[in-house]
Amino acid sequence: MIGLIRHRGPDASGIYMSRHAGLAHARLSIIDLSGGDQPIHNEDRSVWIVFNGEIFNYPELREDLVARGHRFYTQTDTEVLVHLYEEHGTGMFKDLNGQFAFALWDKKEKSLLLGRDRMGIRPLFYYQNNGRLIFGSEVKAMFADPATPRKLDTQTLSDIFTCWTPVGSSTPFEGIYQIPPGHYARFSRNGFSTHQYWNLSFRNKSNENPGERPLLEWTEELNDLLRDAAKIRLRADVPVGAYLSGGLDSTYTSALVKRNFNNLLRTFSVSFTDIRFDETPFQKIAVKALKTEHRDIRCAEKDIGEAFPQVIWHTEVPILRTAPVPLYHLSKLVRENNFKVVLTGEGADEIFAGYNIFKEDRVRRFWARNPDSRMRPMLLERLYPYIFTRQNGKAKAFLEGFFKKSLSEINSPVYSHLLRWQNTSQLKSFFTADLQKKTANKEEFINRFVSTLPADFMSWHPLSRAQFTEINLFLSNYLLSSQGDRMAMANAVEGRYPFLDHRVVEFATRVPPRYRMNGLKEKFILKQAARSLIPPELIDRPKKPYRAPISKSFFQEKPVDYVEELLSESAIKKSGYFDPKKVSLLTTKCKQHQGQILSERENMAVVGILSTQLLDHQFIQNFPAHPIQEPEDVKIFN
What we know:
The protein is 40% helix and 14% strand. The protein contains 24 helices and 17 strands. The strands form four sheets. A six-stranded antiparallel beta sheet has the order 3-4-5-6-10-11, with helices on one face. It has a five-stranded parallel beta sheet with strand order 14-13-12-15-16, sandwiched between helices. A three-stranded mixed beta sheet has the order 2-1-17, with no helix packed on it. Helix 6 links the parallel strand 12 (240-243) and strand 13 (266-272). Helix 8 crosses helix 9 (324-336), helix 8 packs across helix 24 and helix 11 (356-368) runs antiparallel to helix 16 (462-489). The two termini are 18 Å apart. The model has no long low-confidence stretch (mean pLDDT 93).
């Protein structure tokens, strides 16, 4: 099991074994480099733990625990968890500021505690059957046990081809689940149960009325919180670098570090040979302004196509975009420069309303008040100026027709996401007829998701509802997984996220909606807070979502070998998920045009089908599809 996740922790390995439990750990050493090997235990060896992640407030917690009489034998943040459990049991989670997944074995109670951080930054999977529980940071570790079934879950596959991601605790594999963000689980003779210890809520009624508190006070509080969130994320016994995309979020966090804590900050970025995706000019502005030591890696379509199988091996989930692949190359650059830790700007778009989907929701609600208006749809030009041009009247008419779909359904709890789900769910037309019958349609999917929403959800501001939906579905299960933890840890690099400090997130839920998005100005409060730190041309630049080349990465003059093989009629028939004739028509079109002039939906279909085929090939048909990095010098405890 630890051999299959050796990429996450190449520095050391350890195993604890008893009659009832076994814990194994592959270590990426960041704190207490020489003395922090796991598993770690308490004073009388009755409590043992394996832990992935960081507890950023561990020095403060340790000081309190020592004052209470606990004795430490390491300098790690891991050991704090053992003693905190002794002191508070499952009440320990309220004291933690971190990103973590851990398994703690209580030898006296003969019970296992599994815990995951509030935002779901670190992954934690499990499979249980016949009174036996298997868990791991990645699913592949669990597949090392032949008793773990290996089969794709078709309902989750359908969900991914609707909303881009698994929903809730589900995974792409049948019978395998994940501990949800902000939850812990107990396993003992009494069975298995999960419990929520933290939840995201925008229910504070003060959101609806800013009252007398001025914007300046809000921005000062935000700056103070983010400064401290960045500061404690520099706690490490190894150098800490930063990703620098040239956008507001990563530039802001890098500026906080550079100006306040670290005058020798090393930054890293990815650029593209295709100028449609490249942000090099903005990255250069950021580097010049912050005066960081900078390294970048240039990514071409060929690089994406070649690395895609390795990326799917690490994501362990079908994806609909190639965006994770350049981040895989970026973390490799970080590791090659002897860095193990980087700060990143993930999370700001979700908590401060930075995505176009939030603007679309506002425009469409305004338009819905007068559906026949010729003027109101023109607001969409502010979101997509490159499409709504006078020279492109056909595209303009198409987009207006697209955004008018379901326009009047403003009472739907998920109004903000209806268009995305409707558009994406059309990809399921590539499923076999049998699979289409077996899996839920869009309406059933919506009803299932709505049933999980908080009881007072409809009393929240529409922007808050849209943000909650995006965070609940997309942040942990896609962004922090496929583009975050998995792409960094594939190269033994730990990403840290100041914007996802739970204090910052809870602050964002209190910020009045008009300060999160002012009119159609996204991340309004964040931009105001950043004006004293970073150049205005980075703050006021047009929003450009991070994306990467798609079909052209797989179909150039000649398709990449594995693409031809996995999308062949025989391979499609063998796996049984997709209609061979429809896939054949799509691949023929790709070959004829070398991956160009495909629609957005066709591009997503190519990536979705290919990644599903790879997942089936690597995990179902040919597991393990990559060499296992057997650990050396494993420490064994009992």
